[in-house]
Amino acid sequence: MHRQLMCCCLAILFACQGPPSPLGEVAPPVETAFSLDEVQRRTFDFFWETALPGNYQIPDRWPTEHFSSIAATGFGLTAYAIGSERGFVSRADAADRTRRTLEVLWNLPQGDAEQGVAGYRGLYYHFLTNDNALRHRNVELSTIDSGLLMAGVLSVQSYFDGTEEDERKIRALADSLYLRTEWDWALNDKGRLSMGWRPEKGFIPAEWNGYNEAMVLLILALGSPTHPIPDGSWARWTDGYEWAEYRGEDHLNFSPLFGHQYSQMYVDFRGIQDKYMRERQSDYFENSRQATLANRTYCIDNPGNFTGYGSTQWGLTACDGPGQLDTTLNGRDRRFFGYRARGASALHEIDDGTIAPTAAGGSVPFAPEESIAALEHLWTTYQDSLIGRYGFKDAFNLSYPDPDRPAGWFDQDYLGIDQGPILIQIENHRSGLVWDLLKRNKYVRRGLERAGFSGGWLDTVADEKS
Fold first, then answer.
1. Is the distance from CB of 96 to CB of 166 less than 8 angstroms?
2. Residue-wise pLDDT tens digits, 413-450
3. Which residues of 242-259 are buried (b: 16+ CB within 10 A; e: fewer)?
4. With the C-alpha atoms ordered 128, 124, 74, 321, is the resulting torsion angle positive or negative?
5. How far apart, in whole angstroms, are the C-alpha atoms of residue 417 and residue 258?
6. CATH of domain 2-465
7. How far apart are CA 347 and CA 332, in angstroms?
8. Which of 61, 90, 268, 375 is the most exposed place for a label (fewest CB within 10 A)?
9. pTM listed for this prediction
10. What is the spatial distance between Cα 27 and Cα 33, in angstroms, rounded to a whole number?
11. With contact defined as beta carbons under 8 Å apart, do 140 and 70 qualify?
């Protein structure tokens, strides 16, 4: 599947009004009872406190220091709006940070050189260096990560709607960044968006085709008034859809849960339908609900007989893992992975016993009772091992055979692209904030309409405009 290629790319490879300071070693937080407020506050702090000094990009992971992630920076921008709304920081401080981040993004060098640039044609490289936010090694110019960045950019364009100078600058910078992006340049000869480009070799062979996390990328590319992709692009995208029954749920399949979450962090698909979903009397929100429940059912059934799986301990998605190891465990051959897109659907089941809290956290709007119960169980049961300063660490595996860690493997890192869904989707469940922001954005509405979506809030917004 497409995302597994992207996850391989992922596997290869902090702040106040002024430039933030390095965190250094800190004492672990005092044990705190579970609440959505506490989860959101700590997860917000990840973005606020780890943004890199001077360039405000969000690190791919922390405390391990590698590089920043352009998609995580997009999630960070949205996090600042949530933090302002929740009172975690003042609106003025959130606006200041947002403006600074957008100014850096706008001023970073663009061009077709192999090094010394951050992007090309308005798109950005997947990972940027921590020091000066330029291309990290030979990573690809990433269409999906640029799309997630621009979703974050448009979310703060809609949120900061005041007359203060910072808020006016935010709206103008967001407009400039989005309108500069040459989505049409990334189309291949089959009319599909390429997954990426490298100056050394050109476009990579992989393309966006079929249901996965890239719905928001297509919508933003269709909505652009300056560099839109052509009519028919959504139909070409849906050509690769695979509808099937799995674990009692008849739905559009994709194995890792992030594929059902990323686009819906920004677009409220409840009640709006494209041609494909109209024909099936469903919508993408309902589809993600079914996929979430199927993923949970798989873990309850636990065909791999992994330790700890159950009704409140589930969730397979792309995440860190204990490492590459082929072994025999309980009389069965086992393969354990490092960073990998784990998941379960009719397409395939990829499971090594690793559970990621972002799987349930990013699914809270779809299956709130089941997802919040899982989060509470994980928070309470593994407070000493899985919970830290910034909330949930990325993943854990109770089946991994490590004599030095008999209680199981627990990640030491937080990952920006996995923190984002927890914070944003809990907020969408609680208030609908991010969904409402993007409903107000003319570019997102145009993209949805060009893709053939109608019904629900989309028709209501259209009526209000007329």
1. yes
2. 999 999 999 999 999 999 999 999 999 999 999 999 99
3. eeeebbebebbbbbbbbb
4. negative
5. 10
6. 1.50.10.140
7. 23
8. 90
9. 0.93
10. 18
11. no
